[in-house]
Inverse folding.
């Protein structure tokens, strides 16, 4: 994996506004936030996308995301938030290192805006796709 701004932050080469760190995870404030308290949560393991991350690193992220979310809400006074995680450039991933965004949402509209162009799934296609996915687990 290529060096990224996140690998440089992990190595201490670039400063950050650190809010949490353990052996496997680092969390810090986004310097281009969508709203007050916008926090990035990254594994220290180098992986470009979530599907390439080890089970251990993924579990470490899963253990701290709820705790960090509660802390962001309590510190900012926000009552709602989004967790965003993108995988690949076509999915809007800008830094090719797994990362989660905790983005507080406020009454003034600041935070993440989402378009959701929902479609329908017919029964035959759904059954075939579910079987194909399950068969690869």
């Amino acid at each position: 994996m290529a060096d990224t701004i996140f690998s440089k932050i992990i190595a201490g080469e670039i400063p950050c506004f650190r809010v949490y760190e353990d052996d496997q995870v680092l969390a810090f404030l986004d310097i281009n936030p969508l709203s007050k308290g916008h926090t990035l949560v990254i594994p220290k393991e180098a992986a470009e996308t979530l599907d390439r991350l080890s089970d251990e690193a993924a579990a470490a992220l899963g253990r701290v995301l709820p705790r960090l979310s509660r802390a962001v809400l309590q510190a900012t006074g926000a009552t709602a938030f989004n967790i965003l995680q993108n995988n690949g450039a076509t999915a809007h991933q800008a830094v090719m290192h797994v990362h989660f965004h905790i983005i507080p949402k406020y009454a003034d509209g600041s935070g993440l805006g989402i378009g959701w162009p929902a479609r329908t799934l017919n029964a035959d296609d759904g059954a075939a796709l579910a079987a194909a996915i399950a068969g690869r687990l």
